[in-house]
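Task: encode each sequence below as structure tokens.

Item 1
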Amino acid sequence: MQSGTCGKNLRWELNGDTLIISGTGEMENYQCGIRSRTAPAPWFDLSGSTKKIIVNDGVTTIGNSAFYNFTKVTDVKIPNSLTKIGDGAFFYCWSLKEIQLSDSVLKIGNRAFGSCWALMYVTIPNSVVHIDDWAFSSCESLKSATIPANVLKVGESVFATCLSLKEIHYPAGRGFEKNLSQGNNAKLIPYNVAPPVNKPTPQPVKPTTQTVDATKFYPVQPTKQQPKFYPVQSTTKTVAEKLTWSFAGKTLTVGGVRVIENFPYAQIPWLKHLHDIQRIIIGNGVEKISPHAFDDCTRLEILELPASVKTIGDMAFSVSFCGSINGIKNVFWCLEDGVLVLKKNPDVSPAADFSTGSISWVFAEKNIRSIKIEDGVKPTGKFFEWMVQRFNGKEISFGE
């Protein structure tokens, strides 16, 4: 029997043709993709022999690309403890015809069920508040879908190239129409009270391909409203006693602690505002922002940092990327104790072009004392122009 670990407190094992995930807490994120097979899940080589996946109670997230390309899986069991389904978690699960999501799920990630060509029936529970871009794209057998009343954000092209999709029921007054209609001919049916979801009749499936659009950003609307601050409830006692936050006029203000942690998705204090945030203000006294702490703030455009911030973890913000080739984000930056570091995105192929294309770290200039460029990253003219104008005389190192 093959087995191993897939999270701090999670284990996996293959029992016959069944892959079983057990334990408590979050699953690791993995890095498979359409164009690469970099750092896949530890069970990736079992994808051709696995027909059933059981995620036991206690598991809180399914990681990015966790079951990517499991083309023979027909049965998936989701626990009541699950809060998040990661990006591409079931991408290319061609044989999966039906899945029942539990009432604990809050987020369905980018392309989570993309290219599940046989998927005919999926229930999106009322607990879901966020459905990301392309989440059900190329589900060619899907005939109807219902967006539950509690959803706050529907990403772009959620049902793109769903060729059999006839109708989409959605809550009225949320502005979802554009994203729901992209790439399909389904009839959009608004509702005030959610209609029942009917299980469609199975239909033959044909493969298709898709192209993913780059992320769009929106301008920030200024506000004069004075925010109020609230204490945060968290599993980390020291953070819960000190962290303060407020949200007003598309602006999130966070402070009161030396370290801003990366909260589990279900415990993000500003969760219901997550996809309205266009500006983040970090309060004085904050010294470190943990990796991925704000990476779900996909509309972020402006960031204000105090001089006290010395460390910004990998991909802490959606604006951490500074290189993109053909829509693929290939280079990101972080701050390591005052050192600006440009790094290759491990999600893309090692043969990719790791050229920078922007200087998205400019708001952190006062926090930078030196620069390091990881081996393989190729700075463009914009980088050198910025460096000469702003940081002439600062230490720069290339590679190891």
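Item 2
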Amino acid sequence: MLKYRKFMMFIIIASLMIFLGVGGFIVWVFDQAKKSNIGDLMFESRLAIPELLEPTLDDQGRKVFDLTFTTGEVEFIEGKLTETWGLNEPYLSPTLRSSRGDEVVINVTNGIEEDTSLHWHGMHLPAAMDGGPHQMIKSGETWSPTWKVDQPAASLWFHPHPHGATAEHVYRGAAGMFLIDDLELEELNLPDTYGVDDIPLIIQDKNFNRDGSLNFSKPLFSNVGILGDEILVNGTYDPYFEATTSLVRFRVLNASNARIYNLGFSDDRLHIDWD
């Protein structure tokens, strides 16, 4: 009986040590994913601001926007080119802007060699226009969803949403913002001059290989997606924005695969946990 108790005690202690060891290792792995750029950046690169895409009007009075998936190369790291995707641009997309009550048409042409889709994240619209995995755009083809914008003012975004490849397509750079204005909110007098006092901040993290190419690897034992160790804002590394007005509106978008950000000002006036 005594030997049995000793044996059981040994089993319990050994199991506990294994559990603590494995648990500690997993905690260590996830802790390595934590990154901070406080004190590391010199803020030497002027913040790139996506252009505002001007629509045309068709014979029905609808605002028509034209977007084309394209491939490109961008020098994120000095002296090294990174192969990217974008919409109308080598990386990211021009910003779309419309008002509540507008009828819009978006002509989305797939100019890359891989089938993809384009989803209007946060938009209130018919399912047939949503752009999910069930609405793939084949290479060389054009999809033209149309709907009436009918929701309050918002800062939305659009991105590919193919089944099993959403993260990769967004990571390559195919994403952009869709801003909705609402006349009922004009009395708030929020800054609204795009690129001057109304600024989009599209935050993404990337891993780069030595040659500058994108690294698509994921952390060991992680099922959350790619966690990059370099942070880009509007595709700009080490960015700064020089304000020319006393009041500035920042529209912050977390367009990363998995990373959660803790955003704040250097004087701690405001702190945001952003996921």
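Check on item 2: The helical segments are 2-31, 166-172. The first helix runs from residue 2 to 31.
End of task.
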